[in-house]
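sry for the spam today, last one i promise. struct tokens for design, 205 residues
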């Protein structure tokens, strides 16, 4: 059995104190124990966690004091334990009594996996319904346009003057030439010729 522990930013307790986790894991029979002193909050690196996963081989069992010492969400837990299972590695959480090396533990984990999938589908459905409701209210979705209507009108007015090129107008507005062509579609792939003036440059190749 291989133990893993992770520190906590909350109040000291057996679940959050790295030294107490190490002692608990060794008392449970772990021959190797990896403990990250920091919580890993905000995506911080967990070098001991990475080393722990790299050390696991088929027939090993990863042991934690509590589930929240391993991952921060149910989907993350399901993904990790599933990956361990494909490698022939079991998983055990002492506080919750979960042990995937037993039939009962595997059944509980299947329930976890089904619940994670259910929550994922609820999230997708809720997002879809929210987008549909926003469209029905006339809200614009997605990233805001690179040019607002006033800037597009300004660009058209500037293009009417022969001394202004597409490239210079794009630089003035702080956008690329391709963005300018996108928002002024009448430019198309044609060259713009002003009366009694030189050719104004067309789209980039």
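last one done:
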């Amino acid at each position: 059995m291989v133990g893993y522990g992770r520190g906590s930013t909350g109040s000291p307790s057996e679940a959050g104190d790295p030294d107490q986790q190490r002692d608990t894991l060794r008392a449970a029979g772990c021959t190797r124990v990896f403990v990250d002193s920091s919580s890993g909050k905000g995506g911080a690196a967990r070098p001991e966690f990475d080393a722990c996963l790299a050390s696991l081989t088929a027939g090993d069992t990863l042991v934690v004091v509590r589930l929240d010492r391993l991952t921060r969400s149910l989907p993350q837990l399901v993904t990790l334990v599933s990956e361990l299972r494909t490698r022939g590695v079991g998983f055990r959480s002492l506080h919750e009594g979960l042990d995937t090396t037993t039939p009962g533990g595997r059944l509980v984990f299947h329930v976890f996996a089904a619940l994670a999938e259910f929550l994922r589908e609820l999230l997708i459905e809720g997002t879809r319904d929210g987008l549909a409701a926003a469209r029905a209210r006339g809200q614009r979705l997605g990233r805001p346009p690179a040019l607002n209507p006033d800037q597009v009108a300004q660009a058209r007015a500037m293009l009417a003057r022969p001394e202004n090129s597409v490239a210079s107008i794009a630089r003035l507005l702080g956008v690329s030439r391709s963005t300018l062509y996108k928002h002024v579609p009448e430019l198309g792939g044609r060259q713009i010729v002003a009366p009694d003036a030189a050719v104004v440059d067309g789209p980039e190749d």
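Strands lie at 2-6, 32-36, 61-64, 90-93, 98-99, 192-193, 199-200. ok im logging off now
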